[in-house]
Amino acid sequence: MTSPPQNRTFILALLCVASFSAAFNNLIVSPILPDISDDLGVRVAVAGLLVTGYAIAGGVAAVAAGPLLERVGRRRVVVTGMGLLTVATVCSAFAPTFVALVGCRVVAGLGVACLTPAVFSAVGDYFEYHERGRAMGWVITANTSASILGVPAGAVISGVFSWRATFVILAVLLALFTLLLWRKMPGETPAGGQREGMGAVVAAMRDRTVAMALTSSFLATAYWFCFVTYMGAYFHDEFGLPKWALGGLTMTMGIGVLIGGNVGGRLADRVGKRPIVLWTTALSGTFLLLETTLAPHIVVAGAFVFGFAACGGARFTGAQAQLTELAPERRSTVMALSAAGQQFGIVAGSLTGSLVLTLGGYTWLGPASFAMAVASLALYYPFVAETAVVLRRAGVEA
């Protein structure tokens, strides 16, 4: 059941709050990693397990989150996810050892596994397909705001006080957000899923269109993180960008995603989601190819970063909007699989980038990312047709 029109703006605002919380938790460890490393007496390379463990836990748990959403509804899963994030963040602030902190981040990953698919599937429930790109654009805006505003603020707090203070302040915000979502988010189950349990996962992946779209999105996340994971080091080593200026580079990328997500979402509602996904995948891959092979100056390299970020934001918005309608009867399961694919894409992309960097240096990061973008297009173009989506919505067999 779709929410009454007069409530949808407020509901979208609540979904943006949840999306911001999930993104903040995805990114918060990166700027404070050196402080954690020094305080807990572990090497930076080992401290990176905080990100890996978080991503793997979130990816595995997200697979089960879809059937859970179908059974108990959006509100309970979102509030549970926020509650887990809050508890995990409080415990992170007072973790006595590195192992304990890893455990806390794993629990945080479980919380995000509940939040992310619930947010994106709820957009599909409350907004019609022809306006879903715009709504998804607002969710992406909230998501990106975490990197533009939230993460730098967390880094400043860590620098002035300590990394533990960053987690304390984040925990307070999460507790307030949890209370807001618990009191204000609608309690009904909008999608009315088939409640097939884990069988819904198998059924979704047997659908060739769904499987190809999800795999294409997985590769899109992988090619993004193949470069982004090492972007700061690339600009520092190749162009001499000072470490203190790397935050500005992240902000440039975030602004690109924000603009691309909103413009791409609105264009997707006008011309179709599929054309936006196709063109922006090709363009973002090309920008990455040029980034490490033909950027003669830091200004040009920065422009390429902005270009691939804007195209990447547009691609993500269009692809997520289309995914919500590929199998409406299993929407939560499909979006949960998409969230899992994003987490595993982060792991695959960062590992691929590490291997490429070791074997060939920074120059080959762009070509490797471009190759994965081409693979993403090769899976998407012949198998994911938007006409099939429209026919399904009308109840007609394609």
Describe the protein.
The protein is an all-alpha fold and 398 residues long. Helix content is 84%, strand content 0%. It is built from 17 helices and no strands. The protein has helices spanning 5-27, 29-40, 44-47, 49-72, 74-93, 98-126, 132-160, 163-184, 199-206, 208-228, 231-239, 246-271, 273-293, 298-326, 331-360, 365-383, 386-393. The two termini are 25 Å apart.
Helix content: over 70%
Basic shape: globular
Alpha plus pi helix count: 17
Let me know the number of strands.
0
Tell me the distance between the termini: 25 Å
Integer tally of domains? 1
Derived structural class: mainly alpha
* Strand content bin: under 5%
Radius of gyration, whole Å: 20 Å
Average the pLDDT over all residues and give the rounded result: 82
CATH topology title: Growth Hormone, Chain: A
Question: For this structure, what is the CATH homologous superfamily?
Answer: MFS general substrate transporter like domains
Which architecture per CATH? Up-down Bundle
Layout of strands and helices, then pairs:
Layout: H1 5-27, H2 29-40, H3 44-47, H4 49-72, H5 74-93, H6 98-126, H7 132-160, H8 163-184, H9 199-206, H10 208-228, H11 231-239, H12 246-271, H13 273-293, H14 298-326, H15 331-360, H16 365-383, H17 386-393
Helix pairs in contact: 1-6, 1-7, 1-8, 4-5, 4-6, 4-15, 5-6, 5-8, 6-7, 6-14, 6-15, 7-8, 7-12, 7-14, 10-14, 10-15, 10-16, 12-13, 12-14, 13-14, 13-16, 14-15
